[in-house]
Design goal:
60 residues, mainly alpha, elongated
């Protein structure tokens, strides 16, 4: 990426989709769990995976 002089790459949509998918899965599997810290573990992990993959793809 650096050799192309790109200064900005948008990955927000991919992150939002990963978070949304993870949260929906958590809510579906644990419908009576209202402890938000527990519900957010999977969506945040999924965002982390997407971030790492994008960074690797972009050469960071």
């Amino acid at each position: 990426m650096r050799k192309y002089h790109v200064s900005k790459v948008n990955i927000g949509t991919a992150l939002r989709l990963a978070f949304d998918r993870g949260l929906r899965d958590e809510l579906a599997t644990h419908p009576n769990d209202y402890i938000y810290l527990d519900l957010l573990k999977r969506p945040l992990y999924d965002m982390k995976v997407v971030t790492k993959n994008k960074m690797k793809l972009l050469g960071f």
